[in-house]
What does this fold into?
Amino acid sequence: RRLAHYLAVALHNLSLCYNQEVVVIQGDFAFADALFDSALKEELAQFRYYPQEPFRIDYDRRDISLLSLRGGAEVIKKKYFASLD
It folds into this structure.
């Protein structure tokens, strides 16, 4: 519950700067159970000037290292083909 509180505060602060529609949680937190998810949503509801549900929260359980590798390969590919002009 305490961890959900801290994450809710961080998401609240980020949402003041960005108008996101979806927040994707990856890594260890993506494997949180329904108790964590409900506690996080309860904590977010404490911020009174939010709409009922300010953004959707998705949990991405894919392997972080694989995602990083794919992202790096995509950047290299774009930079390579951009230099062919």
Summary: The chain is about 55% helix and 10% strand.
